[in-house]
Amino acid sequence: MTWLVVGLGNPGDEYAATRHNVGQMVIDHLLKRHNLKLSSHKSRCDIAAFKLGVGIDSHSIILAKSKSYMNETGGPVKALAAFYSVEPEKIIVLHDELDIGYAAIRAKLAGGDNGHNGLKSLTSSFGTAEYFRIRLGIGRPMGEQDPADFVLKQFSKEEKKSLEEFIDRGADCVEFLIEKGLDLTQSKFNS
């Protein structure tokens, strides 16, 4: 059984450390944790594959970062899922979430896109919203700042103090969801 774990974000160094790319930061952390390197795939995604667990209880996992912009993520991810014959219910999408506080994590299956262009693109491409999401809380901007500008800014100095621990918990959540299922993941991580 193969799982596809996708970190949403925009390509390029200017976006790498922004709030909108927190999903890709979790992918980078998983790569480091399992001593993996990304390689280019014809789907327009960068990927790395590994096994989680041992023996007959192990899970095949493909970590992926799309090379396209957030609002065009669906096509490359759908092509990658088709290549590996992964159904939407075996896809985990890591994404930034404005509607939960900074560093909070929520796991869920399906739901709306809540205005998130990456989720909108995925749901449109797959024709279903029935995939897992790990919502990584970035909070809302203070005052009058436009949320579209806010997500494209780097984390604040204060947020950066706990960013590494937040990213590490995001990676733990991915592995726990695959090994233990949604109910146990929600009771452990949905703080």
From TrEMBL:
This is Peptidyl-tRNA hydrolase. Catalyzes the release of premature peptidyl moieties from peptidyl-tRNA molecules trapped in stalled 50S ribosomal subunits, and thus maintains levels of free tRNAs and 50S ribosomes. Hydrolyzes ribosome-free peptidyl-tRNAs (with 1 or more amino acids incorporated), which drop off the ribosome during protein synthesis, or as a result of ribosome stalling. PROSITE patterns: PEPT_TRNA_HYDROL_1, PEPT_TRNA_HYDROL_2. Gene3D superfamilies: Peptidyl-tRNA hydrolase (3.40.50.1470). The record marks 96 as: Stabilizes the basic form of H active site to accept a proton. TRNA binds at residues 15, 69, 71, 117. Monomer. Keywords: Cytoplasm, Hydrolase, RNA-binding, tRNA-binding. It is an enzyme of class 3 (hydrolase). It is found in: Cytoplasm. It comes from Candidatus Planktophila versatilis. Its main location: cytoplasm. It catalyses: an N-acyl-L-alpha-aminoacyl-tRNA + H2O = an N-acyl-L-amino acid + a tRNA + H(+). Belongs to the PTH family.
